[in-house]
Amino acid sequence: MSKDNEDKWVVLELYENGIKAEIAKGFLEENGIFVQIRDSTVPYGGSAYFGQESPKELLVLKENLEEAKKLLEEIKNKNEKSEKEE
Q1: What are phi and psi of 9, to 5 degrees?
Q2: Which residues have a Cβ under 8 Å from the Cβ of 15 and sit 6 or more positions away?
Q3: Residue 56 and residue 16: Cα distance in Å, rounded?
Q4: Based on CB atoms within 10 Å of each CB, which residue in 27, 32, 57, 83 is the most buried?
Q5: pLDDT (tens digit per residue) in 32-62
Q6: What is the distance between the alpha carbons of residues 71 and 60, in angstroms, rounded to a whole number?
């Protein structure tokens, strides 16, 4: 990611692994938000060393940050509600 692009993207959420990050990415992209996933362990070897199980950062464009936060919060609330009903 170039410095110019770096300034446009912000970390929305940190996930414990790539699978969870991919699920969130798919949900956000279905709702029209562009997303990138980045290894949060890049200075320490990234995926080459830690694999898919390493922590991942979910990045969105700055202008989409608030909308993305609302969407993720909405899905978290739905999950919590369904867990309480079980």
Answers
A1: -105, 140
A2: 21, 24, 55, 56, 57, 58
A3: 6
A4: 57
A5: 999 999 888 655 555 555 566 788 999 999 9
A6: 12
